Amino acid sequence: MTTIVPSASDSRDFDPSPAASPSPSHWNLPLAPPNSTSPPQLPAPPLGMSCITMVTGALSNLMALVIVGRARAGKRLRGTRARPYLQLASALLLHDLGAHLIPGALAMKLHARQRRGLGIGPAAGGPLCQLFGACMVYFGLSPLLLGGAMAMERCLGISRPLLHARVATPGHARAAVLMLCGLALLLALVPVLDGTGGVRYVPQFPGTWCFLPLHANGTRGSTGLGLLFSSLGLAALGLSLLCNTLSGAALLQRRLGTSRGGGDGGGGRRRAGWSSGSATSSLSESSRSRTSRWLDIEMMSQLAAITVVSCLCWSPFLIIIMTSLLRLHRGSGHEEGGAERLVLLGLRLASWNQVLDPWVYILLRRAVLKRAGRILHLQHSNPRRTPEATDRSVKPGAERRATEI
């Protein structure tokens, strides 16, 4: 999600008249006593920097979608167990791209209105605010749910491959995407479709984004929906951590078992491989095993990086939402003056999740991982080698051809 927040200098452009300046309750902020001074606004990046971030994130997601699309179209992956994972990854990247473009465009529109002294308008919770709030909930929750589904799919594929072959089909992956996105969309549309007006999205400080009430003016319905949003997000992050831990343990156990039994298995294959047919079969089996191992390493590396990025970016925002709503539900009154700044900081941190996600697929590709593995292996076998010597040893034939030319 890309939200654009005006800088402190933008406050000079506001119309000070009561008609153009909504009351503090419209921003869902605590009302300060007349004698108190309001807390200073959090320094915000200029509009140009926010636009650069949005464009960079969108281009990064497009690059990652091209990489994942080429992997799905590759001959080596047709009919393999990697197809459900790649379908889920494509859905995740598409939602990250939408989170950059749609909420980012709405935030830019609100920023432009605020610079003209209009803001969201005196009628807090209008159609524009409802659309913005629904986009924030949908594009915030759906990537977290898809990340949890990806972690479950990999955990099943590594620990229970036979069950994975029967259950994790491309059709089931598409059904899972539709179900999870439908759940996120249903939660996002509850305030929009609520005819009673009990659950509504409201403008949030400093007036350039909308969300459920977090500090004041909230009903039981809005508080419950906000708690459900944060609980589902935290549960998806916890599920991803658990599944990735189990998958990593299964890979490590498999690696240790292969190392212990490698000698006997290799000798048996050599003794049984006197004929050309058995030798060809042994080589083919070894090649398939090596390809499968690199597939597992590639997908687990990507999943681990995505989980770490999601936890670092989303956990603060979700925890702040949950604690604010629980404090509001207990009726402890308005929060202290810095609460809105914490929410804004959490939102900015969460918006970086969609910027960093595509670089996981760009950098942690199989070709990059293989090259890094070769370099680390050569460095470990001969620590005195320099990186230049390592690069020359990786491709000696290319070096000789270049010398001959």
UniProtKB/TrEMBL annotation:
Top-rank taxon: Eukaryota
UniProt-listed InterPro entries: GPCR_Rhodpsn (IPR000276), GPCR_Rhodpsn_7TM (IPR017452), Prostanoid_rcpt (IPR008365), Thbox_rcpt (IPR001105)
Main location: membrane
Sample GO molecular function, one term: prostaglandin E receptor activity
Gene Ontology cellular component list: plasma membrane
Subcellular location: Cell membrane
Biased composition (Basic and acidic residues): 385-405
Feature: compositional bias, Low complexity: 16-25, 273-285
Biased composition annotated in UniProt, kind: Pro residues: 31-42
Annotated ranges, domain G-protein coupled receptors family 1 profile: 60-361
BP GO terms, sorted: adenylate cyclase-activating G protein-coupled receptor signaling pathway; inflammatory response; positive regulation of cytosolic calcium ion concentration
PANTHER family: G-PROTEIN COUPLED RECEPTOR FAMILY 1 MEMBER, THROMBOXANE A2 RECEPTOR
Protein name: Thromboxane A2 receptor
Organism of this sequence: Denticeps clupeoides (denticle herring)
